[in-house]
Amino acid sequence: MNRFATLALTAGGLGFLRPASGTWGSLPPAIVAGLMVWLGAGTWAVNGVLVLFLIGGSLACLAFGNSAETVFGKKDPGEVVADEVAGQALTLLALPWPGDGRSIAMLALIGFLSFRVMDIIKPPPARGLQRLSGGLGILIDDLLAAIYAAIVTQIAARWLF
């Protein structure tokens, strides 16, 4: 695996941080989205950046996932967090962001925690999809967990704000 593939799959090296590399890998989309909203970026800009995170993380998994499993010697290696980047971005996509700083931080935190919980417990059929080979198996369970987390986050956003 070349340096680019390693950086893409590990989200710039976050996948090497311990403990909980998936939690570290989920941080960039949440932090960037929250900061963008707080700094006054339009919804279209925030969603555009989240789509870039989603596409970038997904493509990294699909393009380099097979190699990563070979290099790290296991199925869905913990060092690979591009799937968490993609999943977290999907969770936060199209949220009705509130206007004040505290509410923005709260919604970003709700989205972050919702995704982490769903990614860890992997409600059916997400856990079973991990069995798919290579990059698709690395990615698909996180995207399904993200859909569950997005539902929770959208409901919370509308109920709380």
Describe the protein in words.
The protein has helices at residues 3-9, 21-38, 43-72, 82-92, 101-121, 126-129, 134-160. With 161 residues, the protein is mainly alpha-helical. It has one domain (3-160). Helix 3 packs antiparallel against helix 7 (134-160), helix 4 (82-92) runs parallel beside helix 7 and helix 5 crosses helix 7. The protein is globular and about 45 Å long.
What is the gist of this entry?
The chain has 161 residues and is mainly alpha-helical.
Task: Indicate the topology.
Blueprint: H1 3-9, H2 21-38, H3 43-72, H4 82-92, H5 101-121, H6 126-129, H7 134-160
Q: Quick check: average pLDDT? A: 95
State the low-pLDDT regions, or none: none
Task: Please state roughly what percent of the residues sit in beta strands, choosing from under 5%, 5-15%, 15-25%, 25-35%, 35-45% or over 45%.
Answer: under 5%
Shape label: globular
Alpha plus pi helix count: 7
Distance between the termini: 45 Å
Largest sheet: none
The run of helices and strands is: HHHHHHH
**Percent helix:** over 70%
The secondary-structure class comes to mainly alpha
Task: Supply the number of structural domains.
Answer: 1
Radius of gyration: 15 Å
Which short descriptors sum up this protein?
mainly alpha, 7 helices
